[in-house]
Amino acid sequence: MLIYSGVRVSELLDLKRENVNNEEHYFSVVESKTDNGIRMVPISDKTYPFFKKWYEDGCEYLLHTTDGKHFIYRNYYYSYWSPVMELIKCSHKPHDTRHTCVSMLTEKEVSPTLIKKIIGHSGAMSLTEKVYTHVNLKELLDAINRI
User: Cα separation of 117 and 121, whole Å?
Assistant: First the structure.
C-alpha cells in the first residue's frame, strides 16, 4: 500500500471519501492533533492514480480493509507496512516518509513555508509566516509535483 509522504499515517487511514477532491487534486485533513494539521493536502500527479482508484472503490474510508472497514493503524502496520519493509530489507517506520518528503522538497528548493503547509507543521513558522502567508492550492500542487 502506498503511503502519501506529506501526511501522518493516521491522517491517511482516517481519510474519508467525502474529504477528497479528485477534480482539484487535493484532500482535506479535517481532524488532527494540532490546528495546523487541519489543512488541504495536494495530491501529486504521481500518486493521483492511487487516490482515484481508492476513491472509486466506493467505501466510506479511502483506505480500508478488504471488507471495507476502517483501517486501524496496528493492522495496517503489521499487515502491510512490516511485510513490505522485510521484503525490501529496510527498517523504516511510516513516519520516516514525512522526513523523506521534507528532504525531497528541500532538495527541489521548495520554500520552507510551502513545506510546512503541506506537512501541517507550524512550530518552526515565524509569526510573519503564520499571519501573513496565504498559500493557494496551485502553489501546493506545483510544490508537491517537484518530487
Answer: 7
Assigned domain for 87 exists: yes
What would the grid cell of residue 90 be?
Answer: 529496510
Look up the domain containing 102 and give its range.
9-144
CATH number at residue 75: 1.10.443.10
- pLDDT tens for 32-51 read 878 878 889 999 999 999 99
pTM over 0.70: yes
Regions of the chain short of the pLDDT cut 70: 1-5, 122-134
Nearest to 37 by CA among 12, 7, 14: 7
Q: Is residue 136 part of a domain?
A: yes
